[in-house]
Amino acid sequence: MAITVENSENISGEVEVSSSKNAILPILAASLLSDDKVTVNKVPEINDVSIIKTLINSLGVEVEESAKSICSFGMPQNNHPPYELVRQIRASFLVMGPLLARKGKVRISFPGGCAIGNRPIDLHLKGFQALGARINLSCGDVIATAKKLKGNHIYLDFPSVGATENILMAASMAEGRTYIENAALEPEVVDLANFINSMGGKISGAGSNVIKVDGVKKMTGANYTPIPDRIEAGTYMVAAAATAGNVLVKNVIPEHLKAIIAKLIESGAEVEEEKAQVRVKRNKKIKPVYIKTLPYPGFPTDMQAQFMAYLSRAEGSSVVTESVFENRFMHVQELLRMGAKIKTEGRTAIIKGTQEISGASVKATDLRAGAALLIAGLTAKGSTIISESEHIDRGYEKIVEKLSGLGARIYRKL
User: Where is the active site (predicted)?
Assistant: First the structure.
């Protein structure tokens, strides 16, 4: 599957952001904590959601879909999710915490996902061990067992989002109180905690670097709507700025977009914030900026590639430093094929702005790289054909239709 993009300056109109991919995947995993009916609303039609839904069903839990909702209910019957599902997305590893809490044993293969660098699971496993689990490795699988999980003080060497979420879910049904120190601050962690609390959990402090979890014996059903996707919002905001457009991005939480907004304004774009929407437009030339990716509330690593495509047209040289993942410049080679002038050294990229880039046949190496190539294609002369676009569909709901609605010349090619 490929996506073809043609030069589309001055995109304009309104676009509505879907629910957060990075929030809904752990929320669906956490639904395993309850035997009662759990309903998650406004579920985006993206590949990663389909995979995690199938994975939950493979564990013996009933899963129903209606409109834009997913309902799950029942005790997990299986504690060994299939390798062919786990290898596809990293978020599959998030079922480990709930299964350990409910079943006392879980066996899972090492997770897959985008090839954006080494994302070790050691912090997840150290957290489970601190709660009383025994960890063994066998034939490429991780096996965790615990007769009874017990609360403890857990310090994370790095504020890992996945580790914070996995430990949070396991601790939510452990005996006693757990403190997770140096916890991730991301809004998606807060959303997960709010979801677990809606099922009867007792979690406080999410969004700070110390989260307190008082374990409960039983979780109830819930009806929950996840937060909007701040990375999807940021992608459309950058697309508007890159094309000198004027776009109203709806269904957002502006507070979650502060770092993105700051860099857009610094680059010469105008951003108008309202309660649940932002308008982005640009009439001035693109100014070069310095970006360093950091855990939230710093600049998100998931927006680095999109900004690099945008800054390739700036007047002057920009610098991007990737401090979260060590192999997240795979899009650079593809942007070079389009005429961008980028040099990398280690985790730093220097982008020398150029007046013109040209369409080319390029490859989406991962989810956000694919989004960057879409943005580059909108501003490039001629046509850009992006192969392996299934990476893009992992995290963006109906992106071709949404960009078309803004006047972009974009279509799928079988």
Answer: 114
Domain boundary among 194, 224, 254: 224
121 is known to lie in a ligand binding site = yes
* 114 is known as an active-site residue: yes
How many Cβ atoms sit within 10 Å of the Cβ of residue 134?
12
My answer on whether 208 and 93 are in the same domain is: yes
Q: pLDDT per residue over 32-62, tens digit each?
A: 999 999 999 999 999 999 999 999 999 999 9
Residues 191 and 211 in one domain: yes
120 annotated as a binding-site residue: yes
286 is in an annotated binding site: no
**21 is known to lie in a ligand binding site:** yes
| pLDDT above 70 (res 119) | no
For 183, residues 6+ apart whose C-beta sits below 8 A from its C-beta are 156, 159, 164, 189, 205, 206, 208, 209, 210, 211
Tell me: do 234 and 353 sit in the same domain.
yes
- Catalytic residue chosen out of the listed positions 3, 40, 63, 114: 114
In this structure, the answer to whether residues 182 and 301 fall within a common structural domain is no
Note the pLDDT tens digit of each residue in 363-403. 999 999 999 999 999 999 999 999 999 999 999 999 999 99
Q: Is the predicted pLDDT of residue 115 greater than 60, yes or no?
A: no
User: 116 with 327: CB under 8 angstroms?
Assistant: yes
Half-sphere exposure of 291 (CA within 13 A, CB side): 34
Tell me: do 39 and 139 sit in the same domain: yes
* Total structural domains within the chain: 2
**Look-up of token digits 């879409």:** 374
Answer with the one of 224, 257, 276 that is the final residue of a domain. 224
Tens digits of residue pLDDT in 225-236? 999 999 999 999
Residue 282's domain comprises 2-18+228-413
- Provide Rg for the chain, Cα atoms: 21
